[in-house]
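Pilot study result, target chain (99 residues):
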Amino acid sequence: MQELGLLERLIVSVFNFFSYMIDLIPSFELGSTQRGVSSFFSSLSASIDFMSDLIAGAGILIPVVDVFIIISIVVGFRVFMFTVFIINWVIRRIADVIP
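Predicted structure:
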């Protein structure tokens, strides 16, 4: 019965950790028209500043620049392959029209 209490505490601590991590994510809310445009841009700017500080802090442990380079290479390759597919499709449609 003691293990059940330990298991419950472990599950609660995991959920508390995830809720803490979710609370770190800034909210990108649009706000209401009563607050005005300047307050919207100031909250958006604060959110972007927080995210950049969070990424800069993670840069100590995670090679953020290298991760972004790898992601950009993968996305660039997929865009290139999609472009090749579109060009191939257009050439086939033109070849189907020409007897």
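One observation from the pilot: The chain has a mean pLDDT of 79. A full batch analysis is planned for the follow-on phase.
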